[in-house]
Write a structure and sequence with these properties.
Blueprint lengths: L11 H16 L6 E3 L21 H10 L2 H8 L3 E5 L2 E3 L1 H6 L4 E4 L4 E3 L1 H4 L8 H9 L1 H5 L7 H6 L2 E2 L10 E6 L2 E8 L1
Parallel strand pairs: 1-2, 2-4, 3-5, 4-7
Antiparallel strand pairs: 6-8, 7-8
């Protein structure tokens, strides 16, 4: 993502560009590694607020979001994807990153899912991507300014429970990045 002036907020053009790139990754078996970065001071500050409420037809806007979904494509090519988090990782930023097979988080990463504090359902796949990554209880307790360690710091396990896939996550320690293993 390359919109540092808005902390990589996801607008329609960014969504479409992500979809285009991820469609190639899904369709081409020779692509085995996909790195997802956010340029500038933040990985992704979520949906672009400048576009909220601007659709003339809400039903059409919903249809576009469902059919042009980076989350759905990330879910299909997740094992190939490494999300490199730093700075703000808010709303759609964490929802999308959680679909990646591997998440690397710099020590300055701050994860927020503000929709839940307002009683809203996350719109970029958070209800599907976060529970397998951090567990139902942690997903339900997300609130603004929740530190990264709340989500990932104590959830490392040696093996996943029956029926869950291995999802590797790297969490920060005081020396930088370190692997913590399989988390749910």
């Amino acid at each position: 993502m390359d919109r540092p002036w808005v902390r990589n907020a996801v607008d329609a053009a960014t969504r479409d560009a992500l979809c285009e790139a991820l469609e190639v990754a899904v369709a081409d078996p020779s692509i085995t590694v996909v790195d997802l970065h956010g340029h500038g001071p933040a990985f992704c500050s979520g949906g672009d607020l400048a576009e909220f409420g601007t659709a003339r037809d809400p039903a059409e806007a919903h249809r576009v979001r469902v059919h042009r979904s980076p989350a759905a494509l990330l879910q299909r090519c997740g094992p190939k994807v490494t999300a490199h988090l730093h700075g703000a990782c808010v709303g759609a930023g964490i929802e999308l990153a959680a679909f990646a097979g591997r998440v690397l988080a710099a020590p300055d990463t701050v994860i927020r899912l503000p929709e839940t504090e307002m009683g809203l359902i996350p719109g970029a796949g958070g209800t599907a991507s976060l529970p397998p990554r951090i567990g139902r209880e942690r997903t339900a307790s997300t609130r603004p300014s929740t530190p990264l360690r709340h989500f990932l710091g104590s959830s490392a396990r040696r093996s996943p429970p029956s029926g869950e896939s291995n999802r590797h996550t790297t969490v920060p320690d005081r020396h930088g990045l370190r692997a913590s293993g399989v988390v749910r």
